[in-house]
Automatic annotation (TrEMBL):
Keywords: Hydrolase. InterPro entries: HAD-like_sf, HAD-like_SPP, HAD-SF_hydro_IA, HAD_sf, PGP-like_dom2. This is HAD family hydrolase. GO terms for molecular function: sugar-phosphatase activity. The keyword tRNA processing does not apply. It holds the Pfam family Hydrolase.
Length: 224
């Protein structure tokens, strides 16, 4: 019988080494609209929903926000990200971690703030079969991170109470969403946030990357 715990994974920066490609893609999209914004400011917003992401960035530039501008930015981001597809690879240990959970009959799902148009690139790089694994994208919920909707829906699809789930993510937005969902947050350093930031946002444990999490998975009660 499957164990009464589950893992809900973020995608970018958690299972796939793609955070900085997203940063560069957003920079390209913003530049195309004549919006000047430092790369570091873009990085600090990656991981939240695309709409909230662009709204927060544009507030910093005091630029009028319109649905048409949001749509153009999203489309240009997706186009620029697709151009970087050859550099998107699984993070160390990501495939092995997912295989271990599957072999141990521990349910897992993916919940990403990205839309399927860009998430599919990452899922393909990871080798995830979406007919076998629940994958929840921004297209499928009302609100994305830092709201808890993505993780709540992923837990629902697995049939596991959200309180028994580990939310694994690389950004403070994942940890905030986990807290709001009443799940246990597990942080990874592979997206560029520091351990102290992840812990302040609610991470109960912080690991370097998926390989480190797999090597020490007994520390959170999911024994090898």
């Amino acid at each position: 019988m499957p164990r009464e715990i589950a893992f809900l994974f973020d995608l970018d920066g958690t299972l796939v080494d793609s955070v900085y490609q997203h940063v560069l893609a957003w920079k390209t999209a913003l530049d195309s609209e004549g919006i000047e914004l430092s790369v570091w400011r873009i990085h600090r917003r990656v991981g939240m929903s695309g709409g909230l992401f662009t709204n927060m960035l544009l507030r910093e530039t005091h630029r009028e926000i319109s649905p048409e501008l949001n749509d153009r930015l999203r489309d240009r981001h997706a186009e620029a990200y697709r151009a970087l597809v050859t550099s998107v690879t699984p993070l160390p240990g990501a495939r092995e971690l997912l295989a271990h959970l599957t072999e141990s009959e521990i349910p897992w799902a993916i919940a990403t703030s990205g839309r399927m148009e860009t998430a599919k690139i990452n899922l393909d790089a990871l080798g995830v079969d979406t007919s076998q694994v629940p994958v929840v994208t921004r297209d499928q919920v009302k609100y994305a991170k830092p709201d808890p909707d993505l993780f709540m829906e992923a837990a629902r699809r697995l049939g596991i109470p959200i309180e028994k789930c580990f939310v694994v993510g690389d950004a403070i937005w994942d940890m905030l969403a986990a807290q709001r969902a009443r799940a246990l947050g597990v942080g990874l350093l592979s997206g560029g946030y520091g351990a102290d930031e992840l812990e302040r946002a609610g991470a109960m444990r912080v690991f370097d990357d998926p390989a480190d999490l797999l090597a020490r998975i007994d520390e959170i009660g999911a024994r090898r």
